[in-house]
Specification:
Blueprint (H helix, E strand, L loop, with lengths): L1 H7 L3 H6 L1 H10 L1 H20 L8 H16 L7 E2 L3 E3 L10 H12 L6 E2 L4 E2 L7 H8 L3 E5 L2 H13 L3 E5 L5 E2 L3 E2 H7 L3 E5 L7 H7 L4 E7 L15 H10 L3 E7 L17 H6 L4 E5 L10 E5 L1 H9 L1 H5 L4 H15 L3 H4 L1 H7 L2 H17 L3 E12 L7 E10 L3 H9 L5 E2 L1 E3 L2 E4 L9 H14 L1
Parallel strand pairs: 1-16, 2-14, 6-9, 6-10, 10-11, 11-12
Antiparallel strand pairs: 3-4, 5-13, 7-8, 12-13, 14-15, 15-18, 17-18
Helix pairs in contact: 3-4, 3-5, 4-5, 6-15, 7-15, 19-20
The protein binds pyridoxal-5'-phosphate.
Length: 458
């Protein structure tokens, strides 16, 4: 009886030659299908041994093989809907790109380009020209260069300019940024010797002054990034440090972190130091991220004095941290938005920051109505969105939230994450909360479907 069940199973080749098998091979290729069909047959034999007494149909075997093929070929990086209200969400890919940036990287990615080619003379050129002039124009810097990310920019700058020398930095700025990036450790990697001055909460100009020796090469200022200093605190301002550096023939280096090109105070946020202000204060080199408040692709942007930028760009380590053509294409397109004074209209993160509360309220009510009509307990309340990405810690944007009361908020939330386009919300006070601020145009239907289906199942 059992022996019959085993004998009734088709062979691997039989399964692959039937129309379903042929179409699977067309979609996934023969080697993967061979493995999937073999393992479906193995699973069937296992089931028979474990006591199954019904013969297997081919369609059962194909479903098992298909499920395996789907798992084996699923993308690990999938698009999600961000309903957390955190605009620059590092875990969810930081800044979404503008239409023009997407177009630029798709055009350049599709074929060949002038990445390192000069059309006039018809000979080899340099990739360093891309984005460089735009960056200099927008920030007012003498020169600029681009690397793979801001962590690389900090490492490269210190390596090229201060290796083997002392770099003075305030104890209040020895911060750890997400992903284990610690300013003191990166400085150590560069071969520069870190000289810590001041205290955690207060550092004065004379602290820096007293630390300067004949072996000092630079003063470094790092943005506090993801934490805020409040209370009894003091730090000299950049212009004072720039004067001190000049007097002693030192470089003043500034890691701006997020590095905004626009004044965040114009959007009801606390003022985030801009790149332009840093340079105007007399910083020699400033560096910042491409995918935080700039709203572009991952990149590290280095701007400042021509001789210092040149030294950084020519260092051998620069080759190891250079940006690729897709990054340069998307970055140039993003920078062009600033030059054309259309950043707030075209760059998604600025559109999100600038979204009027009244619009968000209208959207939140529309969602709550739809969810309530379909049997969920959803209300609208005022709340806060965050900028994120280590910029503007502790400052928030007023927003309107949809609050869903559900017996199993964690189950509901897990169900939303299991949707075809996963929806990421947040749980506050045992309720599931959705912030429309970070939901992109065109995602509303998929979001509401995901919530309702998850609620049905949990
Ligand atoms: C985010 C950040 C970095 C690292 O930038 P990446 O582009 O993520 O490499 C470095 N310094 C500061 C102050 C930051 O906020």
């Amino acid at each position: 009886m059992k022996a019959d069940l085993f004998r009734l199973l088709p062979s691997v080749e039989q399964l692959l030659q039937e129309p379903v098998g042929v179409s699977l091979v067309e979609s996934f290729g023969r080697p993967l299908c061979l493995e999937a069909v073999r393992s479906a047959l193995d699973a069937a034999r296992q089931a028979i041994r474990a006591g199954r007494d019904m013969p297997f149909t081919n369609s059962e075997l194909y479903s098992e093989a298909q499920a395996q093929l789907a798992t084996r070929t699923a993308a690990t990086m999938r698009p999600v809907i961000n309903a957390t209200g955190v605009i620059i969400h590092t875990n969810l890919g930081r800044a979404p790109l503008s239409e023009a940036a997407l177009m630029a990287l798709s055009t350049v990615g599709q074929g060949y380009s002038t990445l390192e080619y000069e059309l006039g003379p018809g000979k080899r050129g340099s990739r360093s020209v891309h984005a460089r002039d735009l960056l200099a124009q927008i920030t007012g810097a003498e020169a600029a260069t681009v690397v793979n990310n801001n962590a690389a920019a900090v490492l490269l700058t210190l390596t090229a300019l201060a290796s083997g020398c002392e770099v003075v930095i305030s104890r209040g700025q020895l911060v750890e940024i997400g992903g284990g990036f610690r300013i003191p450790e990166v400085m150590g990697q560069s071969g520069a010797r870190l000289v810590e001055v001041g205290t955690t909460n207060r550092t004065h100009l004379w602290d820096y002054q007293q630390a300067i020796t004949p072996n000092t090469r630079a003063i470094m200022v790092a943005h506090h990034s993801n934490f805020a200093m409040v209370g009894f605190t003091a730090e000299p301002d950049l212009a004072e440090l720039a004067a001190l550096a000049r007097d002693h023939g030192l470089l003043l280096l500034h890691d701006l972190g997020s590095g905004s090109l626009l004044d965040t105070a114009a959007f009801g946020l606390r003022h985030e130091p801009t790149v332009q202000e840093s340079l105007a204060a007399g910083v020699d080199l400033a560096c910042f991220s491409g995918d935080k408040l700039l709203g572009g692709p991952q990149a590290g942007l280095i701007v400042g004095r021509a001789d210092a930028v040149e030294k950084v760009a020519r260092h051998p380590l620069a080759r190891a941290v250079r940006p690729d053509k897709l990054c340069l294409a998307a970055l140039s397109a993003t920078l062009l938005h600033y030059l054309k004074d259309e950043a707030v209209r075209e760059i998604p993160i600025w559109r999100m920051i600038a979204k009027p509360a009244a619009d968000l309220k209208r959207v939140a009510h529309r969602w709550a109505r739809h969810l309530t009509r379909n049997g969920l307990a959803a209300t609208v309340t005022d709340g806060h969105s965050a900028v994120g990405g280590g910029s503007l810690p502790g400052t928030v944007l007023p927003t309107w939230l949809v609050v869903i009361t559900h017996p199993h908020p964690a189950g509901l939330s897990a169900g939303m994450r299991a949707a075809p386009v996963p929806v990421i919300g947040r749980i506050d006070n045992d309720c599931l909360v959705l912030d429309p601020r970070t939901v992109m145009p065109g995602e509303e239907r998929a979001l509401l479907c995901a919530v309702l289906q998850a609620a049905d199942r949990s």
